[in-house]
Amino acid sequence: MAGTSARERTPRPHRCANNVLKRTLTGPDWDAFDRDGHVSRGVLEEAELRGLQNAIDDVMLGRADVDYSQLLMQLDASSGAYGDLGRQTRGFKGATLNYRKIQDLELHPVFCAHACLPLFREVCAHVYGEVSIACFRAMFMNKPAHGGTELPWHQDRWSNLDRDPLVTIWTGLDAANRENGCLEVLSGASGVVSSIRRTPARSRVRVRAPGSTMSQAISSKPKPAKCCCCTTGCCTARQSM
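RE: above sequence
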């Protein structure tokens, strides 16, 4: 069902003080990252979360002060089948909350500010060293209410970059669990290199994980933005709620 107005979100329940967004990652955090390929960095404060939620709703509903001709926007497939998705092209596709993917959000001031948090700079410096860092893509992945498209297991790698992307920062904006299609990652697969078959049009990726690797769901409890750093294989399922 196509949404044409900003979604209603219930207030977030009280959370423990030790689960707030971390301002730095400690030695044990990095040990977990090296072992599992992902680490949680806590949850955002209510005001920042609400700002991100409202900003992406405004983008989808055509109310944002941003150059839409520069945004890559893809509507979701009504069937929920990955093969039925439309092309990812630049430009506004109409006022609806049924977008699956919106990319190049670094052009939006709210998302640009979020991407430039000191913690993210620290993470990149730890992984890449003290070098200039560019964001390859800042994007919003969405599963519209009562639907959404399954995303197969994959590991993002490209043949047209000067180095492999080793860090993904994921911020969950809405409640997510196994029933409604949360993010799943392959713990311990960060050292597993996916195979890339180069073609003129695209690079096809196949994740090859060892048999001992376990998948882990990364869920967000009602209305927090649970955030993690990730460098491993991942997938999502179709939303059922």
